[in-house]
Amino acid sequence: MRNIAGWRIQVSPQYCYDSLTPLQFFDVPVSDDSAAIAVIRNRPEASPGERVYAVRPLTPDELASRAGQGTSLKTSS
């Protein structure tokens, strides 16, 4: 089994179901998927009703390679 270092989280607006809806993706360095989703839902710019999904787990190498690309979310844990 591979080591889970974090999760790729997808966020989309509440009432936008169009395939052209802008989606946001965040790489969260938390190994538990429920906790990673909670981090995203509790971020300052979150909107009520956003749809938030854990897309896939990230390995330590993937998380480290994306750290400078602006998609990684820093956590206090």
Describe, in short, the structure shown.
With 77 residues, the chain is an alpha+beta fold. The protein has 2 helices and 3 strands, in the order E-E-H-E-H.
Give a quick set of tags describing it.
three-stranded antiparallel beta sheet; 19% helix; alpha+beta; 77 residues
Radius of gyration: 13 Å
Beta-strand fraction estimate: 25-35%
Order of H and E elements = EEHEH
What number is the mean pLDDT?
Answer: 83
The count of strands amounts to: 3
Overall geometric form: globular
Work out the oligomeric state of the chains in this entry. single chain
What's the tally of helices?
2
Main sheet summary: 3 strands, antiparallel
Helix content: 10-25%
The end-to-end distance, rounded to whole angstroms, is 24 Å
How are the strands of the biggest sheet laid out side by side?
2-1-3
Low-confidence stretches: none
Walk me through the topology:
Elements: E1 6-12, E2 24-28, H1 33-41, E3 51-58, H2 60-65
Antiparallel strand pairs: 1-2, 1-3
Structural commentary:
With 77 residues, this protein is α+β, with helices and mostly antiparallel strands. The chain has helices spanning 33-41, 60-65; strands at 6-12, 24-28, 51-58. The longest helix is centred in the middle third of the chain and has 9 residues, at 33-41. The chain starts with 5 loop residues before the first strand and ends in a 12-residue tail after the last helix. The model has no long low-confidence stretch (mean pLDDT 83).
